[in-house]
Amino acid sequence: MKICITGGAGFIGSNIAEHYIKLGHEVVIIDNLALGFRQNIPDGAKFYHIDINDEEIHDIFKKEKFDIVNHHAALMSVRYSVSMPLEDARTNILGSINLLEASKNSGVKKFIFSSFAGTVYGEQDVFPCDENHPNRPVSPYGVSKLSTEKYIEYYNTLYDMDFVIFRYTNVYGRRQNPLGEAGVVAIFALKMLNNQPTYITGDGSITRDYVYIDDILSAHELALNDNVKGIFNIATGIETDLNHIFDKLANLTNYKLPKVYTPPKLGEQKRSVCTADKFKNLTGWQPLTMLDEGLPKTVEFYKSYNAK
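^ thats the sequence. predicted structure below, dont judge the formating
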């Protein structure tokens, strides 16, 4: 199949692109390199350096005639969205609509979208929660993800465009950007390897459900199947707090500096953990890499990252 991956120079998108190429698919990456890196683009992928809001997107779609669009391009910081909600909406909502219009007009068969469970559900009532949990975003980023989900459902209703919406919990692993605000495992790992102060939000009791990148790749492989359609959590169902992540990484990196706590950030929920039973029951998918295996792999990657 011919697959377009937006945001394919970023953390998750580049790993998916590499995986799809190994499976024998033709991959075209669209990325403006605002958050992605050219060196992440795998060999064998065609690359367009362009923003998803650009009108030229429509010409690219008509020329390439994609079978599937895998949409990961986004402004992905909760904190940035709180300070810059208009910019967040322009990219994450209007850019997504531009892609959906181009997909509709060029005959795309399926639209796969990366949403994020914690930002869409907001503060949870049930732990872990499933896809039927009320949607109460507490940041513009969460609002933009939920809005895009609704637009995707609209295009399915009117134009019969199949879709898969993956609501990830916290994804971590190789190629996650350790220099931004998001991606606590990558940020902690690199700071600890460099023996720099490492800051913990709040009192360290904030919890997340951490999913390793390889388990995301297996989900996206299954998403290519014709019978896989709908909205699915991709999660482990295991809740882990920041203090525990700090302690695990400190042990792996031989980090000796004390914990430093900072005030909680606006727009970030306190607890997030989800069940992926819906996707497991349909496809047999399950997370295979738990933190005790995934964290050492991630630290080894950032050792090599540090050496560059």
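The radius of gyration is 19 Å.
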